[in-house]
Design goal:
With about 575 residues, the protein is α+β, with helices and mostly antiparallel strands. The chain folds into three domains: about 375 residues, Zn peptidases (Aminopeptidase, 3-Layer(aba) Sandwich); about 80 residues, Immunoglobulins (Immunoglobulin-like), CATH 2.60.40.10; about 90 residues, Immunoglobulin-like, CATH 2.60.40. The chain is built from ten helices and 24 strands. An eight-stranded mixed β-sheet has the order 3-4-6-5-7-10-8-9, sandwiched between helices. It has a six-stranded antiparallel β-sheet with strand order 15-12-11-22-19-18, covered by helices on one side. It has a four-stranded antiparallel β-sheet with strand order 14-13-16-17, with no helix packed on it. α3 packs antiparallel against α10. The chain starts with a helix and ends with a strand.
Length: about 575
């Protein structure tokens, strides 16, 4: 979060000139009383900096860096703030998007993993400082770019707007039917400390927001949408929102149709005795975007209360860079009245300043639901009906059954990762030829937990099935269960895991009166993880009605139950 100017001046004086990187001219630190004065000072500094490296977003199929070519160089001219234009109206309320889209979006929110967010926060804190004018910031930018690439983004590039500060990191997931319509989520990755330039862990401010952007990319890049999604990690927010201002100017100069922006800045602190909620910060031109977010949260993350918020005092964040050009933008914030008191110090660390991972997780779920609602997901056929992973004799066995649409699949690959968020590596040296029933054995299994997923290559892209977790044989008595409705015309997906073999596994669907509706799986099963699909038929072959059901997994000595809402017949 960007503090008020007088604090920033005091900070710069305390740090001193010795901490600055000699990569180029620094922006002058002054007491500025107006946006016009701020813009004039920054324009002068950029003019002194000269030509900046700028990669053109949305034109090349891959970034220049990924292609091994030098970044495109062009003079960077900041565009002065424009008058606030009429907000772009959203086309229709979310409820008119159809039950199938609702079910798919709900499934996306369930894929958001708290462990993945927490791991990203810890990793970013581990850089010790991410101050935008120090060498670590360039290392962080490279690391973020690699993470976005591993999630399957169509294009990732470093938006280098000045030699004085680390670049912004931009990932693009292109839309199918309306690719020029763009929705963006961003959060600044830089950190700063009043105490030391080399000890600015910035767990809450703003590793939490950066982790949320990463998790949104990890989840949403598994799907295709009508509109384009962009994921941004801003640099130099703590020096006056500089990175986001540069990118907003870049977007205006290109004439891109940036319809809505979500900024995430500080999502992980909950004061003692305070109630967990998500504060939304908006302006008059962004009311429609705020309302879409509130509705998406109510539909898909009802456990999290959403309230109107504000930044303390005269503090601000990167959404203001887009307000200056009349774009619709909102900001997610942990709490307007009781934000973390540890920011901009060496105490902004995991479990101290970032002390409520549940708030960060649920806030990220809201972001995923909002972006998916806006961009409109495509309904794709279910290509895999059953998928099981098990450990046996020092190797991992995978078995799966392709659905009726398997003829659309060109080839199948198996990928493995140490964590659900990746990085993913191919286990199949050559693509597998699709068949109705398939099997693969990973003979190079490791003695630690791993995740597996299937990559199903079709014309125009790749779909993924999974991921499924596997523990070393006999390592745990794990029992887990999850169920989700995949949408109209598609089955209900049921995912379960057992840590030990069982002679009599029972997996069934029951109605609210406790009567069994359908036996989905039964018999002797080895330890491992499995996917099963329920076609919404009861044991007699009749279609079930909409309503609330319960899925029961009985593995002998232990059992687990999950609630399931069937939203359509």
């Amino acid at each position: 979060m960007r503090p008020l100017p007088t604090l920033f001046v005091g900070l710069a004086a305390a740090i001193g000139a010795t901490a600055m990187v000699a990569a180029g001219p620094l922006l002058p630190v002054q007491r500025l009383e107006s946006h016009a004065a701020v813009w004039a000072a920054e324009t002068a500094a950029w003019s002194e900096a000269g030509v900046a490296d700028v990669a053109r977003a949305g034109e090349e199929p891959e970034s220049a860096a990924a292609a091994g070519a030098p970044a495109f160089r062009e003079p960077f001219y900041p565009i002065p703030p424009s008058a606030v234009r009429d907000p772009v109206p959203w086309r229709s309320p979310p409820l008119r998007r159809g039950i199938a889209s609702f079910a798919i979006i709900d499934a996306m929110t369930q894929l958001v993993a708290q462990d993945s967010i927490d791991a990203a926060v810890v990793a970013l804190e581990g850089f010790h400082t991410r101050r935008a004018d120090l060498p670590n910031a360039w290392l962080v930018a490279d690391d973020l770019a690699q993470r976005f690439s591993s999630f399957g983004a169509d294009s990732v590039f470093l938006h280098s707007w000045t030699p004085s500060y680390a670049p912004n990191v931009i990932a693009i997931h292109r839309g199918t039917t309306r690719p020029r319509e763009i929705y963006l989520i961003g959060g600044h990755f830089d950190s700063i400390s009043y105490q030391s330039s080399t000890s600015a862990p910035g767990a809450d401010d703003n590793a939490s927001g950066t982790a949320a952007v990463l998790e949104c990319a990890r989840v949403l890049c598994q799907y295709r949408f009508e509109s384009t999604l962009q994921f941004a990690a801003w640099s130099a927010e703590e020096f006056g929102l500089l990175g986001s201002k540069a990118y907003a100017s870049h977007i205006v100069a290109r004439g891109d149709s940036l319809v809505g922006i979500i900024n995430v800045d500080m999502l992980g602190f909950l004061a003692p005795g305070d109630r967990r909620d998500l504060d939304l910060i908006s302006n008059g031109g962004s009311d429609w975007l705020r309302e879409v977010t509130i509705e998406a949260a109510a539909l898909h993350v009802p456990a999290l209360r959403v309230v109107q918020g504000h930044y303390p005092g005269t503090a601000n964040s990167d959404q203001a860079s887009f307000w200056m050009h009349g774009f619709s933008a909102i900001s997610f914030f942990e709490d307007s009245d009781s934000p973390s008191p540890f920011i901009h110090t060496g105490d902004d660390v995991y479990l101290n300043s970032y002390n409520d991972p549940i708030l960060a997780w649920q806030s990220t779920q809201v972001a995923v639901a909002t972006l998916a609602t806006l961009a409109v997901p495509l309904v794709v056929p279910v290509l895999v009906q059953d998928f099981a992973v098990r450990a046996a004799a020092g190797q991992i066995e995978l078995e799966w059954v392709l659905g009726p649409s398997y003829l659309e699949v060109l080839s199948v690959g198996v990928e493995r990762a140490p964590y659900v968020a990746g990085p993913w590596t191919a286990r199949t040296r050559t693509p597998l030829v699709p068949e109705p029933r398939m099997r693969f054995v990973d003979t190079e299994a490791r003695e630690e937990p791993a995740w597996y997923r299937l990559a199903l290559y079709v014309h125009g892209g790749v779909h993924y099935a999974g991921p499924l977790a596997i523990e070393p044989q006999g390592a745990t008595n794990l029992l887990s269960l999850a169920a989700r409705d995949l949408g109209r015309g598609q089955p209900v997906e049921i995912r379960y895991a057992i840590g030990r073999p069982t002679d009599d596994l029972q997996l069934g669907v029951f109605d609210i009166r406790g009567r069994r509706v359908r036996l989905v799986d039964s018999g002797a099963r080895p330890a491992g993880t499995a996917l099963r699909y329920w076609d919404r038929l009861d044991d007699t072959g009749r279609q079930v009605t909409r309503g609330v059901y319960f899925v029961l997994l009985d593995a002998g000595a232990t059992r687990v139950t999950r609630k399931l809402v069937v939203v359509h017949e």
